[in-house]
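User: For my dataset I need records formatted as: sequence, then structure tokens, nothing else. Please produce one.
Assistant:
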Amino acid sequence: MTQQVTHPMVKFQRQVHSLVESKIIKPNDSLWKIALLYGDEWSYWKKELLEFGFTMQDPIGDLLAVEAWDEE
């Protein structure tokens, strides 16, 4: 039996989706708005987002649209 490890960005994406569903943020808000909610953890997530080619001005909807977080 093989256990699949969930990529950290999948967990982050789910958390952000939950924030959108709760109407705390909107899909058309910029990614930088998440920084206000993540506090000390934000530097880690910002670094991850930048490594995947996101900018802090990209809409949150772009993050939610990612189907696979493959690192090459």
